[in-house]
Amino acid sequence: NLLYKIRNFVFDINSTSVGKKIQSSYSINMESLREIISTAKKNNVELLLYIAPIRHDISKPYNINDYKEFINEIKALSKENNVNFFNLETLVPDKFWGSGSQINFSDEKQYDFMHFKNDGHKLLSSKLNKLLN
């Protein structure tokens, strides 16, 4: 935890810092998704691809053009493979997101883009249950 805080302090990183897309990792991840889809198709496993919820009360920690490209690529991949696709990024209201934690040496809490509260989990599980049925 201390090394994490030191890194964030040295590089002036916080939860709203826009990270750069690492093309090599992105390409590997997309190829893995293609392989999952291919394997599922071969084994007659029905898939559901979705864009995970994300908070909208503050700027996302992503390059907005990269993020839109990602969504469009998943949507196109779904269409090309006849896989159900749903964009759930606005499903969980901002008030249901976690408050975050201290990620450097200040007392300021950071925004949490990865975790939502119990009510957010209820919304997501209910939505996924409906989509699966």
Largest sheet: 2 strands, parallel
Rg to the nearest angstrom? 17 Å
Distance between the termini: 42 Å
Residue share in β-strands? 5-15%
Structural class: mainly alpha
How many beta strands in the DSSP annotation?
Answer: 2
Walk me through this protein's architecture.
- It is a single chain.
- By secondary structure, the chain is mainly α.
- Helices cover 46% and strands 6% of the residues.
- It contains four helices and two strands, in the order ααβαβα.
- The protein has a two-stranded parallel ribbon.
- The longest helix is centred in the first third of the chain and has 20 residues, at 23-42.
- The mean pLDDT is 87.
Q: Main traits of this protein?
A:
46% helix, 133 residues, mainly alpha, 4 helices, globular
SSE topology:
Elements: H1 2-10, H2 23-42, E1 48-51, H3 64-80, E2 84-87, H4 118-132
Gist of the model:
This protein has 133 residues and is mainly alpha-helical.
